[in-house]
Amino acid sequence: MTSSLSAASAAVRAGSEPRASARRGASPSSKTVPLRRGLAALGLAPLAAYLLVFLVLPTILAVGTGFFTRDGAFTTSNLSALWDPTVLLTFANSAGLSLLTAATGAVVGALVCYALLGLNPAGGVRTVVDAAAGVLAQTGGVMLAFMFIASIGLRGVLTLLIKDVFGADLFAHGPWIYELPGLILPYLYFQIPLMVITFMPALSALKPQWAEANLTLGGTRASFWLRVGIPVLAPAFLASFLLLFANAFSSYATAAALASQGSQIVPLQIRAALTSETVLGRENLAGALALGMILVVGVVMWLYSLVQRRAARWQA
Questions:
Q1: Considering the chain, what is the average pLDDT of its residues?
Q2: What's the predicted TM-score (pTM) here?
Q3: Which 8-state DSSP code applies to residue 68?
Q4: Which residues contact 70 (CB under 8 A, 6 or more apart)?
Q5: Separation between Cα atoms, residue 228 and residue 312, nearest integer Å
Q6: Are 113 and 196 in contact (CB under 8 A)?
Q7: pLDDT at residue 12 tops 70
């Protein structure tokens, strides 16, 4: 009996020793977790510093100046200037331009994506279109403005060609290309490719099994798009539209290069507040205008995140 108890206790000790050694062996690895997290945080430090210096700090300074006068005294008069009819008109112009170019870019870009859907993703045409969309979506500023001035400007190549061949004057009613309507075509130049980039993954996520199930149940192509395709793609389409709106609303470089005179939209109004030689002492108004822009874009991007979260359910 004693020998059997001794054997049992020895077995228990033998079984417990590996577990104890396993726990002792696991402790060093648990200590390395904070170290790994620290190294990961250290790897993100350059990005965090970049965002802090070039995004967070300028935003705080830009908005903060709206609450102070030129002499550094705290005031809210700059914010009251947001209700000025001229400022409200520039916000309305920016919103209207952004809505028009976002809606047009979303529809045309979605049609381009639908045309690309039947092509081989690894094929030459699809590769060229994807590469071109990635480049054109980032095109803007002085280069884009020069392209339109050289092509359809007052003395542009296409302007003179249309006048010589068809006898039509594109600027019979004034130099619209240097005014608010002249920003529509340049904005569409980068809005449509941006829509192709953002909406194509959602369209590609449509499963062939859904179309097959629709046909099995006696449906048609039209019924598939009305009952399956469009409802599934609606959140992704709306999210892309909101992204295009925010992109157009915050664009500055192209408008500044084309419209050298006047302040038709909010970014140009901010430039005028900072550089105008006729309105002195109101430089801090630019901070209030920047705050208005941040609020508008912030609301749009909040809606975008909500819609994108819903659209992501169908892209898994």
A1: 82
A2: 0.80
A3: B
A4: 281, 283, 284
A5: 16
A6: yes
A7: no
